[in-house]
Known about the structure:
Number of helices: 8
Helix content: 10-25%
Radius of gyration: 23 Å
Shape: flat
Distance between the termini: 59 Å
Strand content: 25-35%
Order of helices and strands: EEEEEEHEHEEEEEEEHEEHEHEEHHH
Largest sheet: 5 strands, antiparallel
Strand order of the largest sheet: 15-16-19-18-17
Amino acid sequence: MLFRSRFITSNSVEVNNQVLRADRFIIATGAAPFTPENYGLPVSEYLTNETIFDLEKVPESLIIIGGRYIALEIAQMFARFGTKVTILQRSPNILPTETQDLTDALRNYLKDEGISIFTNVKIDNILRDKNQIKVSAYVDGTLEIFNFAYILSAAGRSPNTKGMGLEDIGVEMDKKGFLKVNDMLESSISGIYGAGDVTGNPMFVYTGAYEGALAAENAITNTLKACDYTALPWVIFTDPQVCGVGLDEKEADKKNIATDTSLFPLEQVPRSIAAYDTRGFIKLIRDKKTHKLIGARILAPEGSELLMELSMAIKFGITTEELSSYFHPYLTLSEGIKLAATTFEKNIDSLSCCAS
Length: 356
């Protein structure tokens, strides 16, 4: 049974006409799909990642607003079902926070499957025209008209913080309504903590679980442990998968860390060659001074299976020389990590298949 709650004071909430008091609270109300409200189409007309799977038939055509995780995963899924799919992305690139080598490669693979992708899009209006959704939008400054059977909003997430009385007791939130918390997950009001998607931190199931446990520990024991996302692995389940951990080159530059980069194509990984699927690459980023691995980006079928080795390497300050010296079984995808690490110091073409 679902009950609505509202803060009355910093140490009391009203739930189902009953006032509950406590010294500590953890807000873990999550987030919901963001749906545009200013383009003319009623909110109820939009599909979201929660409602699109209620469709009883595969749609003939689908237009998707957004170009990040959810948009790309659903786009490829429905394209493979036989749906005509078009993506409209506001930014110059899909996955706009990632480097262009990765986004360009993924974009080409998706286009090869018949998915139309438009970037630099400014939506003008969205209306229902008989049995179709009509979208008028400027693409690189030129007005285009798109007609599709359904429209999916995958333009972000909205925090579930409305109507909770947080503003009334002085809890600070950002302009989107996400709960502001410090490194210990405590809000601007002492004793009130946040965990999971409601904070706007990386929105994954496993980060929500991690934050929930950490917030509870800090609230109960006052140990004041800080969140640490230094070695946080993440995956976008397209095919090939997009995944990463740690910093990329742009993020390292913002932190004034000089880097070396090794970008190793799957065309040179024996396992990928044997599997007849050499789409993608493994990219390692290391600190130029210390040679410690600080980040990785992977575009590869089942590339996520490589993440934990790299995450542990970043967590424990392992160098690329150490990575390249470890045993990696021949004809496994993980051998690609060894080969990518080796290319920092050696030309792979000069080595035999087993001498790396």
